[in-house]
């Protein structure tokens, strides 16, 4: 009982302190300490038995493993975003979009750019780095409240693309090894759900921005923003080519290198940005330096939350919660959706929710005769809902480290688009599968 209080209390403490704007490098360990104390977990390795979980060991294992796995992607993603900004390539693309499509399509351009990169295989953690320079430029020219930039970036990345059929993102691939399906499982339902989420979510985002503008909100510049100077900009095509290079390289090397393909793709983007636009740079090496510092902050914030998950997964209450969630009676699709979504919310990770639930769910439901393609798609979509609570690593990185906003100002729109919209899409998917579509 105390362990469950500690687990739930620690999760709420993490969310509460994050929403209050506290530094995640402090919030993560404090929340993990809360979980450990209530669960009777030893605080230090020296106080734990051989192989026994402990606060410091489990927290730092989660923290360091994430840094080990993702540092180069974060680094190159941040540098790519900065060189696109410093060279004027991002400004060139944004001005072209505004001139040709009109200011009313500025938000759509950001969403589409994120969607293309995400569906192209670029990691969710680095798409925002790449598109943010264009987003800040477009919002500035359109005079729109900048607090909605995280919502636009998140909506284009982690909703209708991340968990859709054919997506190269890991959230669409994890179920394959457990269900013996393909990345295109349930594609008919997936297509309908993706269209619904894209249309409804974009309408909602535009509505929120329109209401804010009607109340007098406008774009407010900051000292940290790129300084507007009257200088020549590269041709929009020269700005677009590096984005295409990232997309093509990610596609080309994804099958052989998996996540490591991002290293080649992003490095290629940086190189092409320099080669094509080198005469337009203010200072290439300053841009590299700023990108490096931004990457360190971003990955530190995210790893702090992953470390909390490493402690939470080691306490008895977590095992009890998982056991309960994976034995929910009724429709297997509903039970699977609830289990994966709740576990993803507890760990702050869509892939983590799948990796924990599927080894338990898959054999049970497959023996019961559940259609594997329907289960694959429902599990994939459900993992992308509650995972986007305020403590999610991607959410924290995008709002805090990349966009420089606070949860208080930005998370409302982010939560609406990345939690509520996917939950509605999940409901639609379950209904369609229950009616026999795609089975």
UniProtKB/TrEMBL annotation:
What are the UniProt keywords, alphabetically? Answer: Membrane, Transmembrane, Transmembrane helix
Per UniProt, what is one GO molecular function of this protein?
gluconate transmembrane transporter activity
Q: Does the keyword Repeat apply?
A: no
Q: Which residues cross the membrane?
A: 59-84, 105-132, 184-205, 237-254, 260-277, 410-435
Q: Which domain of life is it from?
A: Bacteria
Its GO CC terms are: plasma membrane
Matching InterPro entries: Glcn_transporter
> Does Nucleotide-binding appear among the keywords?
no
- What protein name applies here? GntP family permease
């Amino acid at each position: 009982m105390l362990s469950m209080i500690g687990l739930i209390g620690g999760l709420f403490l993490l969310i509460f302190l994050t929403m209050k704007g506290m530094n995640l490098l402090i919030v993560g360990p404090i929340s993990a300490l809360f979980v450990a104390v209530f669960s009777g977990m030893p605080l230090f390795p020296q106080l734990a038995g051989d192989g026994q979980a402990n606060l410091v060991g489990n927290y730092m294992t989660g923290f360091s493993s994430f840094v080990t796995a993702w540092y180069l992607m974060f680094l190159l993603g941040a540098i790519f975003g900065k060189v696109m900004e410093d060279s004027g390539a991002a400004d060139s693309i944004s001005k072209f979009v505004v001139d040709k499509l009109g200011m009313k399509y500025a938000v759509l351009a950001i969403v589409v750019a994120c969607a293309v990169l995400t569906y192209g295989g670029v990691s969710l953690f680095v798409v925002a780095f790449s598109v943010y320079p264009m987003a800040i430029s477009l919002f500035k020219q359109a005079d729109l409240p900048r607090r909605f930039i995280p919502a636009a970036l998140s909506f284009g990345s982690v909703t209708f693309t991340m968990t859709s059929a054919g997506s190269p993102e890991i959230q669409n691939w994890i179920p394959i090894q457990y269900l013996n399906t393909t990345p295109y499982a349930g594609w008919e339902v997936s297509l309908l759900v993706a269209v619904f989420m894209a249309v409804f979510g974009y309408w909602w985002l535009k509505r929120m921005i329109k209401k804010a503008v009607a109340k007098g909100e406008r774009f407010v510049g900051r000292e940290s923003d790129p300084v507007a100077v009257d200088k020549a900009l590269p041709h929009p095509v020269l700005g677009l080519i590096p984005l295409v290079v990232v997309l093509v390289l990610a596609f080309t090397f994804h099958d052989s290198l998996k996540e490591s393909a991002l290293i080649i793709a992003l490095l290629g983007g940086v190189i092409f940005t320099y080669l094509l636009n080198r005469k337009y740079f203010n200072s290439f090496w300053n841009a590299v330096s700023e990108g490096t510092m931004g990457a360190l902050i971003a990955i530190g914030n995210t790893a702090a939350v992953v470390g909390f998950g490493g402690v939470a997964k080691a306490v008895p209450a977590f095992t009890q919660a998982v056991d309960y969630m994976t034995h929910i009676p009724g429709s297997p699709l509903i039970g699977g959706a609830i289990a994966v979504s709740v576990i993803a919310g507890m760990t702050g990770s869509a892939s983590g929710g799948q990796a924990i639930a599927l080894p338990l769910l898959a054999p049970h439901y497959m023996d019961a005769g559940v259609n594997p393609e329907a289960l694959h798609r429902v599990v994939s979509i459900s993992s992308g809902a509650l995972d986007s609570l305020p403590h999610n690593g991607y959410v924290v990185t995008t709002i805090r480290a990349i966009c420089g906003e606070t949860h208080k100002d930005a998370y409302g729109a982010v939560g609406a688009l990345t939690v509520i919209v996917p939950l509605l899409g999940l409901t639609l998917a379950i209904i369609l599968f229950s009616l026999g579509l795609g089975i």
